[in-house]
């Protein structure tokens, strides 16, 4: 069975590895000329780690992961601890540690596991044709690739999505801008084994440890879309947006490198239930584009990859039937994750300032159990238990 995957991100690579493991002939086509992961790092929660373990990458994933033992929320202005607690109850409840990891390191690890010789760069998809027996992908350079099925793992701006749905849904601006990157761990900013988040005014500043003695950081600021974007202004802008905030925040701003800092306007797409059409299916952000507010975008893509492989391996009524079964295993769960992230986004970023203020007050009374319960609810329902 020949499989064409469009997109060499985490979802496409995970799907490629999963399908190769069950004996499929897989080729991945990626439009960029050079793999440059979007974003500096990613929280791979326990459900995502389990998917990577399932793909045979347990040791490699653990080597990339940061030692994140605890979690804390801090008052952004005073630096006062609002709540601080161990993540061990989470680990014990779900049976796997989460790992914050460098996106680049994770993607390169997946590329090596899949086989770089089967990844074709600079291949921009322009058209998909499904004749009922085979699927043909046409690329911008005029070349084509033909397979028994095609998986669209081509991200939030997916071309394959339009083929599956018959139209292209609009992306919805979530109302905030995110700056993210990597810095060396500095315990004057936060403890080296803690995910620490400073909050206030509907804004967030967060650091979490990844391998190699580095913090992944991000700043969130509610802003209009379409503002000018000049890397050289990042430190000054963040200094203005977080003027008067606590010393650790000021120290972090002083340590960022604008040339390696990413700026992203955060969007999602209204959930839809159709992931498959004939011999073509969607995976990852192509099927369920979400905001990063519950850290489940990449994990959900990895879950997709596992469920897709199981559906194709265990169902024998044909490709079309297996892809529909894959779709029906995934669409309700991923729709709920998108909407949970949207609801969390609105609370965190002060869509209603009174609601956000109540959340801040609740954090001061929090012992960790409610936060952990919320994280577990996102993890539960994954295909690997």
Catalogue the unreliable spans: none
Query: What is the general shape?
Result: globular
Please trace the helix and strand order, writing H or E for each element: EHEEHHEEHEHEEEEEHEEEEHHEEEHHHH
The number of E-state strands comes to 18
| Approximate strand percentage | 25-35%
Q: Strand order of the main beta sheet, please?
A: 5-4-13-14-15-12-16
User: CA-to-CA gap between the ends?
Assistant: 29 Å
The rounded Rg comes to 21 Å
Q: Round the mean pLDDT to the nearest integer and report it.
A: 97
The number of distinct helices, counting runs of at least 4 residues, comes to 12
Description:
The chain is of the alpha/beta class. About 35% of the residues lie in helices and about 25% in strands. It has twelve helices and 18 strands. The strands form four sheets. The protein has a seven-stranded mixed beta sheet, with helices on both faces. A six-stranded mixed beta sheet has the order 7-2-1-11-18-17. Strand 17 (about 275) and strand 18 form a beta hairpin. Helix 1 packs parallel to helix 5 (about 105-115), helix 2 packs parallel to helix 9 (about 295-315) and helix 4 (about 90-95) packs parallel to helix 12. The mean pLDDT is about 95.
Short description:
This protein has 385 residues and is an alpha/beta fold. It is built from twelve helices and 18 strands. The strands form four sheets. Strands 5-4-13-14-15-12-16 form a seven-stranded mixed beta sheet, sandwiched between helices. A six-stranded mixed beta sheet has the order 7-2-1-11-18-17.
């Amino acid at each position: 069975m020949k499989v064409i995957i469009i997109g060499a991100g985490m979802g496409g690579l995970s799907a490629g590895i999963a399908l190769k493991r069950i004996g499929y002939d897989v080729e991945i086509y990626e439009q960029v000329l050079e793999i440059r992961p979007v974003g500096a790092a990613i929280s791979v929660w326990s459900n995502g780690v389990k998917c990577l373990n399932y793909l045979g990458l347990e040791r490699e994933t653990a080597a990339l992961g940061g030692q994140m033992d605890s979690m804390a929320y801090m008052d952004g202005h005073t630096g006062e601890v609002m709540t601080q607690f161990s993540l061990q109850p989470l680990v014990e409840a779900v049976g796997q540690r989460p790992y914050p990891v460098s996106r680049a390191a994770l993607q390169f690890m997946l590329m090596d596991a899949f086989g770089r010789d089967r990844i074709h760069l600079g291949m921009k998809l322009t058209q998909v044709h499904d004749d009922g027996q085979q699927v043909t992908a046409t690329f911008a350079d005029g070349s084509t690739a033909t397979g028994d099925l095609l998986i669209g793992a081509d991200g939030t701006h997916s071309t394959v999505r339009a083929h599956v749905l018959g139209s292209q849904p609009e992306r919805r601006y979530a109302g905030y801008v995110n700056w993210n990157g990597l810095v060396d761990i500095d315990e004057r900013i936060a403890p080296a084994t803690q995910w620490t988040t400073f909050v206030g005014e509907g804004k967030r500043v967060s650091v979490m440890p990844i391998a190699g003695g580095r913090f992944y950081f991000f700043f969130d600021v509610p802003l209009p879309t379409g503002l000018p974007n000049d890397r050289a202004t990042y430190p000054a802008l963040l200094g203005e947006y977080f003027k008067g905030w606590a010393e650790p925040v000021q120290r972090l701003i002083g340590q960022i490198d604008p040339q390696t800092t990413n700026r992203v306007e955060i969007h999602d797409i209204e959930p839809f239930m159709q992931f498959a059409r004939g011999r073509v299916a969607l995976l990852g952000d192509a099927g369920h584009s979400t905001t990063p507010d519950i850290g489940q975008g990449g994990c959900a893509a990895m879950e997709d990859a596992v469920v897709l492989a199981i559906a194709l391996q265990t169902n024998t009524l044909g490709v079309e039937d297996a892809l529909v079964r894959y779709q029906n295993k995934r669409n309700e769960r991923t729709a709920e994750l998108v909407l949970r992230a949207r609801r969390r986004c609105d609370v965190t970023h002060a869509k209603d300032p009174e609601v956000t203020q109540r959340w801040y007050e609740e954090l001061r009374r929090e012992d960790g159990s409610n936060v952990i319960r919320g994280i577990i609810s996102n993890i539960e329902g994954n295909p690997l238990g």
